[in-house]
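DM from R.C. (forwarded with permission)

"hey, sorry to bug you on a friday — could you get me a structure for this? deadline for the figure draft is monday and I only need the backbone to look sensible"
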Amino acid sequence: MLRQWKLIASLGLTAVGAAAAGIAVLLQKLPKEAPQEGSAAPAAKPKARRTGVYSFISGFQDAATVELSLDYDPDVFSFAIVEDEFLNYSGDSHVAILYGTDFNLQLEYASYYSGENFDAHAAALRARYGTRGDFACGALTGFWVLDGDNIAIHLPIPEDSHSYLLVTVQKTPDYDDELTTLPAYAPLKELLGTLRFARS
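My reply, with the result:
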């Protein structure tokens, strides 16, 4: 009798152990608690942005300092103000250059001819260049032309009757499309859409 009792007790303990193990396995398989309604997922860390600044003198008797600002991703671009080793010939004393993955940019100021404004300047470009088109970025609307191995984007400078902005775009070996597709390339338009001007 005692022996039967020990056997029953042993079987009972084994059954309890198996049940506990089964419950543990089920608990592991249950989905983790869903986030409560209204609780926001952790926000993605915003990309670090940097601002490049390029200043120049516009005008003659009523000369003013114009400061151009441009926001860029330092993981994609490097920014520099250079006085030589330009990407493209310039008669200016200094230009701003962004070296990028898909394209490089040279930004410089250029003066209108006497009595000219941006509309007259754009009309002259249309008459001179066969491959060309309108270009819009942010609040600015300008014009682009194919100039040799470059895309030259001409943009008006707000409240400036003396100077406009010339942006020379060169594609890098990593850009595997035609050069003439660059004016419609979203990263280029997004970058130039951050252009801001201040006068003093």
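R.C.: lifesaver. Residues 113 and 144 are 19 Å apart (CA to CA).
me: no worries. The beta strands are 50-58, 64-72, 78-82, 95-99, 103-111, 132-137, 140-147, 150-156, 163-171, 196-199.
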